[in-house]
Structures are given as structure tokens and as C-alpha cells.
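Lecture notes, part 5. Sequence design as translation. It can be helpful to think of inverse folding as translation between two languages: the language of shapes and the language of residues. The source text, in C-alpha cells, appears below.
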């Protein structure tokens, strides 16, 4: 997919580009990125920016001697740094910017997910640049996405983007870490993300980054499965953006998969955290994969984890292979009582039958 055909893109910029010295915002790399965003908008491409850097931007405002930094110190730094980061971006544009702060809980709740979608689309329709970040000043570990690479992928899915651009401090994916292995080879294109691709990733080498190549591949995995081309490019190299504007290859391109899921199934697959596992027999496995069936209690052999009605669960087959992810109509406690039963027997055991299906087909997405 070439630049000229991008209708809407999401650009993720990491802390290493926002605050390269880890002690406040810098325009060292942001000027080039801002120019690229402006050129995209002039060409008719809508842009959503996902920007890290709030903790790094506010680091010099809070006195802290502990290492690693405790969560309350990080959140205080984020509270100061978020406004600094927004001011840093805003001064680079001659159009309005909007701040959107999200947690995983916002994306997990279906109503809030749709509200996020509506807000972002309204901003884009009014020529406002949405700048998205995780709400680091209040988010707890349970509510965090954890890194802005994966957050950017989720945002790209929400707004139905054509492409996700992840700006890094490296030219894309290599067969090994080029900082450690001099003869590592650059990979220009990835047709499918496999275990071998994941094996090439390492952790973050930057002092203020929360991700690394691993989280970027995870993000690409999410986005490409949603039909979104994903590029990892060197945000420190102005030529990366010039090449894109000229329709030339840049960085590493992860090719989108052909089949696109519905918006609800994107949400179910990528935004809902699973709270347990449901193990099914061979018959249920075949019915799910080949007949488009719902999951009934009669095909369930066991379950694990602690989940309530309405929680997402992983569905696995006879060999423990992942089959699907879906929303359970029963809690784990209820499910242990009706394993293997026909739907007509549920009321006699529980005293009620809220649903004949444990996971309805409309609330289920196959993993393969």
C-alpha cells in the first residue's frame, strides 16, 4: 500500500523521540515528524497521533531518588509531563490538537469503546489532530494497556485505519539486534508474523522506553489481522518520512491480512482481556471451526480461571490448542455445574437458564 492511497493513518511516536535525553520534551526529532503529519493532511490523509513521553517529559519536575521509580512517582511525573508533551506538539502545528487519554478499561467496555470511536471520528471530520496517550497519571496495572505500541494498534483498529506507522530509533526489523550483531540483516517486508519473527525481537534498550521490538511486533500482529498495513520506521531519520511521501519503501512493512473482521469482533479479539479458559471436546471443536456454531455446555469438558458472566474466555480444544475467544454467558462457578449437560438440563441444575449457549456465535471469534 502506497502513501497516496492512505485514507487514514495512525502514527505512534515513542518516548525516545519525544524526550531523547529523558529529562523533558525536545523538538530534535519532532520537527520532522510534525512536517510529515502536515504533509499527510495536505494530501487528504487523516492522521491520529499516539504519543508516549509524559513520564519522561515530567521527570525533572518531581524529585525522586528511588530506582526503579515507584508507581506514585511515575504517575506524578506523567501528570506534569502530559501537559508539557501536548504543548510541545501543539507549538509545531498551525491547526488544532486534541488530547485523548485512555486506559485498557476504556477500550474493554463496549459502550466506552464506541464513544472513543465517535469522538475520534468527530475530531478528524473537523480537521483536528487527535493526540492519544495512555492515562499514566491514574491507570493501575490492571487497567493499563502497558505500552503505546499496542495502544496504537488498538486505536488503529478503532478508527479503521489503512496503515499504522510505528516510529522507532531503528530502521525496522532485523534478523538479530544490529547493536549487538553487526552482520544482522534488515527485513524489508513481512508477509506473515510467525514464531520465527517473534524470536527476532528483544527488549527495549532505551532507558525511558516501555516497549522494544517485541511490543512493536505484537502491535503489528494485532493491526495486520485487522486488515491494517503496519510499518516500523526510523523516526530519527528524516529520510524515512521523505521516502514514504514519495511512495518509496521505508523501514519494515508488515503486510495486512486479506480478511477483515467485523468491528465488534475486532473489539472482542483485541480489546477484551480474557479471565479464564474453557476446554472443549472434539465435537465442539469441529462445530465451532467448521459449522459456525455457538458453544454449548454439552461440548465443554472443563474450565479454569475465575470469570463472571460477561467476561471474555479463551476456548481451547482437546490438545489444549487455542480455538477461539468469546464472551461467556455463565460464570466459572455456574459452568462447573453444567459441564457436559444438554441445554434443556441447565434449568434443573441451576434453577434458571439465562442462555442456551455458553458462548453465542455472535460473541465469538475464531483464532485461526
Amino acid at each position: 500500500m502506497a502513501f497516496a492511497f492512505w485514507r487514514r493513518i495512525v502514527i505512534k511516536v515513542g518516548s525516545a523521540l519525544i524526550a531523547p535525553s529523558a529529562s523533558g520534551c525536545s523538538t530534535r526529532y519532532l520537527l520532522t515528524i510534525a512536517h510529515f503529519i502536515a504533509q499527510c493532511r495536505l494530501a487528504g490523509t487523516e492522521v491520529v497521533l499516539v504519543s508516549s513521553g509524559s513520564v519522561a517529559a515530567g521527570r525533572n519536575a518531581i524529585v525522586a531518588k528511588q530506582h526503579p521509580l515507584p508507581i506514585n512517582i511515575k504517575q506524578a511525573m506523567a501528570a506534569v509531563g502530559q501537559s508539557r508533551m501536548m504543548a510541545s506538539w501543539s507549538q509545531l502545528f498551525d491547526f488544532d490538537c486534541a488530547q485523548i487519554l485512555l486506559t485498557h478499561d476504556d477500550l474493554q467496555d463496549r459502550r466506552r469503546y464506541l464513544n472513543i470511536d465517535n469522538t475520534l471520528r468527530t475530531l478528524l471530520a473537523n480537521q483536528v489532530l487527535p493526540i492519544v496517550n495512555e492515562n499514566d497519571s491514574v491507570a493501575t496495572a490492571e487497567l493499563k494497556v502497558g505500552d503505546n505500541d499496542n495502544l496504537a494498534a488498538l486505536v488503529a483498529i478503532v478508527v479503521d485505519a489503512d496503515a499504522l506507522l510505528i516510529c522507532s530509533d531503528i530502521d525496522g526489523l532485523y534478523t538479530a539486534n544490529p547493536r549487538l550483531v553487526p552482520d544482522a540483516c534488515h527485513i524489508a517486508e513481512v508477509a506473515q508474523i510467525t514464531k520465527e519473527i517473534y524470536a527476532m525481537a528483544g527488549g527495549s534498550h532505551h532507558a525511558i522506553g516501555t516497549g522494544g521490538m517485541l511490543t512493536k511486533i505484537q502491535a503489528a500482529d494485532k493491526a495486520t489481522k485487522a486488515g491494517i498495513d503496519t510499518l516500523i520506521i526510523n523516526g530519527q531519520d528524516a529520510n524515512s518520512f521523505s521516502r514514504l511521501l514519495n511512495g518509496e519503501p521505508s523501514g519494515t512493512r508488515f503486510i495486512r491480512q486479506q480478511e477483515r473482521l467485523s468491528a465488534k469482533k475486532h473489539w472482542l479479539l483485541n480489546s477484551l482481556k480474557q479471565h479464564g479458559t474453557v476446554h472443549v471436546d472434539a465435537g465442539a471443536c469441529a462445530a465451532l471451526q467448521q459449522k459456525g456454531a455457538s458453544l454449548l455446555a454439552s461440548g465443554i469438558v472443563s474450565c479454569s480461571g475465575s470469570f463472571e458472566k460477561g467476561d471474555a474466555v479463551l476456548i481451547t480444544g482437546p490438545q489444549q490448542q487455542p480455538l477461539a475467544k468469546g464472551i461467556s454467558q455463565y460464570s466459572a462457578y455456574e459452568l462447573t455445574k453444567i459441564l457436559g449437560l444438554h441445554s434443556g438440563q441447565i434449568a434443573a441444575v441451576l434453577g434458571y437458564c439465562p442462555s442456551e449457549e455458553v458462548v453465542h456465535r455472535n460473541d465469538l471469534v475464531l483464532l485461526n
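The translated text above is only one of many valid answers, since several sequences can fold into similar shapes. The first helix runs from residue 15 to 18.
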